[in-house]
Amino acid sequence: MQEVLSVWGVSKAYPGVTALEDVSFSLRRGEIRALCGENGAGKSTLVEILMGLVAPDRGSIAVNGQTQVMRSPQQAQGLGLGLVAQELSLAPHLSILDNIWLGSAEVPLLHRRAKFRLRAQQALATLGLADWDLNRPVGSLTIAQRQLIEIARLLARDARVLILDEPTATLSDADIDRILGILRGLRAQGRSIIYVTHRLGEVFELCDSVTVLRNGTHVTTGPVSEITRAQLVELMLGRSFNDMYPKAAARADRGARMIVNDLRVSSAVHNFSMVAPRGCIVCIAGQIGSGANMVTRALAGLIPSATGNVMVDGRPMRLGSVPHCVGRNVLFIPDDRAAEGLFPQLTVLDNLVASRLDAGVRMGVLSWRELRRIGGSLAQLVGVDRNRLTSQSITLSGGNQQKLLFGRALASTQPGVLLMNEPTRGIDVGARAEIYRIMQELCELGAALVMTSSDLEEVVGIADIVITLYRGRVVARYQGDDIAMASILADITHPMQSVA
Amino acid sequence: MTQYSTAGTDVAVRAGARTRLDRARLFVWLQTIGIVILVAVILATPGFLSGPSILALLTTVSFIGCVAIGMTLITISGNIMSFALGATVGVTAMVFILAANWLGFGAGLLVGVIFGSLLTGLQGLLIGSVRANPIIISIAALALIYGVTQVFSEKGTIYADQGTVPALAKGKIAGVPIEFVVFLVSAVIAQFILSATRFGRNLFMVGSSFRAAEAVGVSTWRTITGAYLWAGFFTSLAGIMLAIRYDSANMDYGVAYDYDAIAAVLVGGTAIGGGSGSALRTFAGAMVIAAVQVMLLLKGLRQEWQYLAAGLIVLAVIVLQARGSGR
Fold this sequence. Notes:
The complex is a heterodimer. Chain A is of the alpha/beta class. Chain A has helices at residues 43-50, 73-78, 96-101, 114-126, 143-156, 173-188, 200-206, 229-237, 292-299, 322-327, 337-341, 348-352, 368-382, 398-410, 429-445, 456-462, 485-493, and strands at 3-14, 17-28, 32-36, 58-63, 66-68, 81-84, 161-165, 192-196, 209-214, 217-223, 256-265, 269-277, 281-285, 307-312, 315-317, 330-333, 361-362, 365-366, 417-421, 448-453, 465-470, 473-479. Chain A is built from 17 helices and 22 strands. Chain A has a six-stranded mixed beta sheet, with helices on both faces. A six-stranded mixed beta sheet of chain A has the order 16-19-20-13-21-22, with helices on both faces. The two termini of chain B are 40 Å apart.
């Protein structure tokens, strides 16, 4: 067995936090290794160390048996390591060819020479994309297609070890299958892959072996075939994990809180109708481009051109004005935390009370005491450390940031309608269970929850009502025991659809 | 392969370590060192610590300072800066003199303040409602203000009628020039608006993330318009105070004020990208800028050198801010 990558006793501490403590593992040629752990387990730090982005305090790394001190990403690339980061790093206005060679150290000033064209073409061919036009601007591609370009970029540089950080987080199921197929093909060519993911399904579907990190330490490494899903979750959490999706107890009051009729968003949603009862979770399931997230955005008042009849608690609600919708107690949690959810420079407290300043305002002047009290109880409610109320929110982990957004929605004095897009995207299992718990509590208070999700397991696990969407039109509605993964999958993929 | 880790590797690895935190610390150190050197040079300048030059400093800083207080609100709102505030100073001074000659001193004050607020507020309305580029809008406003004033005042300077401005308005309060008192009070008012009002919170939210503010239901156009209205208000104070001091008004009054103002805002530590900052720190920033200018004057350097100094300070702070945030 040939080891392409070995890591020995790597440690890294930041002021106040130990990110990694004495972590060792090795990767063989042609192996796909899942790297699992909660947020803050040290996965990102490990990846950054491997790619030369961060220098470890102790420990060493060997590539093909030779000990290396990674000083820069360029050096890591030169040694055959390549990273596809969670946030795609493509320049949308440049062509596929330009993007593939972007930032490569080996390319001279002019990369349009035949040699580089050919190598880019070959990289695409390896992925089964030989027919793609290299001159096409990347901006015209779908997210899944861009993900493939990121991989092609690594292949063009002849990466032997590919590190993929949550590559499927933003993809729909059909696109994920396509990517997994391509990764299997790369394994067959003898390339090795480190696959960082929160999606346990993909660990068992794709990976040969799994390394679990917890609180910066190495918990276990072993073949996927010798572990069950429940065991894996337990290893990641360090405790038993019996009920991921709490099923709600029967609730008496299920009157309609929100009724939507004939909702339209030009060229995205056609004639959408639904009823969201109190105490229920309505899931709008659809692939990317199905218009599911446009429905929630329109109902939140974020799409000025949206039309339709919406009644909240028996009174009509006007679309196209967020302040108006917030005034009717219809709140929104966006999927893009970084761009649309969080106020990065502001404190945790500021973020928590953002939509409920009214509670602490008298004649336009704030009562900080009152706001601190509200913020403190909200932090407790969603499980964020109260001592961090004055920290900048950007310093929190992804899971905690998402909890802040939920806290914001909870700040409402009476339960209303909560709209969510992909509420658990990019969040570890522990925080995920917390979020489900919060959602359940909201239901018990009588709120109506409307969410979109591309994680079918989550849809089936959490929803009371499922509405499937395909190309902006409702395909079917399911309730209670009728909710089944197979029919939902069939609905949202409808006619055969593929990435290319 | 055996497991080993030599001490040599460790040392090499440590030496290569450079994290963002180190950079942030470096930023703070550089800032501290810069201010210490500055203060030392200023205090070592002959004549700086004399009565007249301190009085000159307190008066000069007040005009630029009020503009800087206004600029702080614009910067926090995420709209970087306005190039039109200097011209607003000049045109407000003119409007004040005209109104005061015609309607009397008190009415002149009111007209001047309202005019300056609306003139700038209108730009905010454009920026907030159609999301026009704030820099372009401010440059267009600058050109418009100069163009219109050229047409209406052929001769350049207009003078206050005899006795229009009461002597009291040029006086001192407890030995401190009245301009400085106005500046100080403005800073306190602006700080109160920023940290203790609902509008202030909304302003920080819009500046930190426009889209997130929109999503939580903040009326973004109102907030931005409000920021510009207040910016116009504080800027008009500078114009009126200049007019009172010189009993006249001229479009040259506000020249380069926008630049000194943004320098004061940045030295005060307000983030150029918006979302964080403070009016009291801008107050301190304005003091630093003015001290540098007075020092240059005392050393006998011409006006051009003051522009150069402001330019260098802005450049240095911008570069340091970018390094400090690790970008």
